[in-house]
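Minutes, project check-in
Item: structure for the 322-residue chain
Input as provided by the requester:
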Amino acid sequence: MAAVVFICVLAFVLLLVFFYLVPINMWFQCVLNGVKISLIQLIFMRWRKVPPAIIVNAMVNSKKAGLNLSSDLLEAHYLAGGHVRSVVNALISADKANIALDFNTATAIDLAGRDVFDAVQMSVNPKVLDTPSVAAVASNGIQLIVKARVTVRANIRQLVGGAGEETILARVGEGIVTAIGSAKSHADVLENPDSISKLVLSKGLDTGTAFEILSIDIADIDVGKNIGAQLQMDQANADKNIAQAKAEERRAMAIAVEQEMKAKAQEMRAKVIEAEAEVPMAMAEAFRNGNLGIMDYYKMQNIKADTEMRESIAKPNTEIGK
């Protein structure tokens, strides 16, 4: 009894291994759908670590869509790290939409890291990209804040090596800034916002990208700050600070000159005092030499007394005037 059970279990295990290694159901599916894949090829797929279900389903779908694809090419693309299902769906969609797309181009796009099926869908149904808020200043100094919508279509020929959506948005933003900056007044832009679209479209911003720009529509325009007035105010403040600095420099120089003049005046006064101190000695010497008489001396004393009297009389009047 135990031997019979063991034989049954062994036979069941061998049967499972046989059906795993020999996918008869997939081969039968290929036969029913007219796909030419032999049973030996399916077994070799197992050994090469390629899921036969992916290849068989891709072959059946392409056959039903009227495409003749080679199982070896699909298997090679899978082993290269590609997405077989996405490539086959893209080829079917492109064929139905009359878009020129061959197998080599589709696999190259897929291996480049782009979603080839999404690219084909974008070629049929264009995609709308919303730009971030772009701030630009017109020639009269008024700032405008613009939002735009860019309608793009995938360019199949430039998907490999072409720039992506970020480049499109950056170029459109640069074009908007240029268009507004060349306007004489912000009012002209507000009156004719389509002038921005026409100018930006004429620059060929989609060159070297994976997309083709179909249209650029201005979604919103807001009036921002008066940048020109702000710059003039900043310039005026800068000029004022410079003028204040120069005035402070002149004041400092005037104070220095005044102090220098005071020092010179004090020096001259010291010399006068020194000279006055020598007057009595000179008068004594003049008396001894006979150059000054007694009457001359009295006349000088009278003049001196008269001067002192005049100064004493003038002092009260000066204080009253003050």
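Outcome recorded: Residues 236 and 242 are 10 Å apart (CA to CA).
No further action items on this chain.
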